[in-house]
Amino acid sequence: MATYNAFLPSYILYSLNCIHMSDLSREPAPSSAAGFPAAPANARPASLRELFWCFSLLGSIGFGGVTPWARRILVDRKHWIDDREFADLLSVGQLLPGSNVSNLAIILGRSYFGWRGAVAAVCGLYMLPLCFILILGFAYQYYGDLPAVQKMLGGVMPVAAGLVIATGIKLARSFPVSAHTVGFGLLTFVAMALLKLTLPVILLAVAPLAIGAAWRSK
What we know:
Layout: H1 2-6, H2 8-24, H3 48-61, H4 67-77, H5 83-95, H6 100-143, H7 147-172, H8 179-194, H9 199-217
């Protein structure tokens, strides 16, 4: 249950971002390769190598979930995107099949260096974690039943949940406070935390309502 509720901020952000994205759809936006949003002009990776190693670092330290670390590195440290852009990309990544951070890496890498940037970002994101998982998998096979290991894993779960919740709160602050954003945020919370609806049902139900409400308010 703790793990289930820990991912609520991501789904709440998705419903809030539907309103923001519907507003953006009325305004001309700069484009990049294959129609993806243009990369921010103020800061960007200098090379494919920098992009690769940035996502490699992100993947290697992303214990307990990559999303909080992705925001810290891409927004706070590298300044490649801001909180609003990160929330936009995360929401789109949540809607598409696959991991939301993987989709974010593909979109962001492609906006900088085309298909080569997308490949570099995804390879960097998964290279070191794959090595760690293989090593830890073999170790867990032999030592996973030990009481000390079980206690260690139990202690990590609240920390992981706290990281995701804190990131959700920081990103939610980038949205303007209005009846729409608060209402759809609460609606998503109730649908997942109280009604226990599945993610596809929430996405299919909340997205049309949020976009329709935003269009009617204009």
